[in-house]
Amino acid sequence: xxxxxxxxxxxxxxxxxxxxxxxxxxxxxxxxxxxxxxxxxxxxxxxxxxxxxxxxxxxxxxxxxxxxxxxxxxxxxxxxxxxxxxxxxxxxxxxxxxxxxxxxxxxxxxxxxxxxxxxxxxxxxxxxxxxxxxxxxxxxxxxxxxxxxxxxxxxxxxxxxxxxxxxxxxxxxxxxxxxxxxxxxxxxxxxxxxxxxxxxxxxxxxxxxxxxxxxxxxxxxxxxxxxxxxxxxxxxxxxxxxxxxxxxxxxxxxxxxxxxxxxxxxxxxxxxxxxxxxxxxxxxxxxxxxxxxxxxxxxxxxxxxxxxxxxxxxxxxxxxxxxxxxxxxxxxxxxxxxxxxxxxxxxxxxxxxxxxxxxxxxxxxxxxxxxxxx
Length: 374
Hints:
The protein is an alpha/beta fold. The chain contains 12 helices and 10 strands.
């Protein structure tokens, strides 16, 4: 950013376009981005998809609800107004908001013989549907700002898919081919923006010596090979030991958290690309506020230490931010700043540490230097 390494502290708010689609709840987007800025949070990850179903953006292949597109326009314009950057994810691995399951259904509706949701990655028609969606998003002209999405610096990066998994091919070959094809297509439409695959960080067959870091299973992705694709600009991981190693005690989960971040920072460095933790969190349904705060501190201290020492790790986005009155979006991982001031304080402190890396020469530092010079 302006010739300097850029470090991030941010959050996930997948619900932004969906919420902006209802005029009565649109202010929640504005409030979230204003609060983000006030807490020093500089990047928000959100969905640029809703395929089929209620309040859909893409109602059927290649057909879009203009009101929902205007809702996404609003999200981007509000991020710009609050000087917060966006990572926009283009499709879901999961059924929420459509995902690969919806694409497979659309292809079946057109006579394609598909056996599983993983055929999304293999079938020529589903791949074409997805490319059409990529082009529709990237070439959209914002109805509020007048700027085409692919030309908008408010957008920090595109994400190919939220948590791509292809467990019908644990060799990783299917996902490798899909990520290569789709990343080439994105760059053919938009060569300016950063691009990431949306990976959770599971190691695959390209580096069997790293598989011991996995939480006991693989998902058909390959952190090393997938991120070595030239069109992928930075690496990502997600961290959910409370789900992945369920039953492990508090210390074991924290140890996993730290080793997951550290090993991937090392590997991202060896690949020559930055690492961003694009999801992490801890469920309040299983853990006390004190346990969750300790987990946040463990994550943030590890991230800050690696970033300060010049490692590949550049920051993290917690899952997930909610404002007050959004109880229907609660999943246990939500952070409502007003309801959990201790967690909010930790997040704010991390923002200040990250800001010190982005702007190492503060005003007070300059004054001290001036005094020394005089």
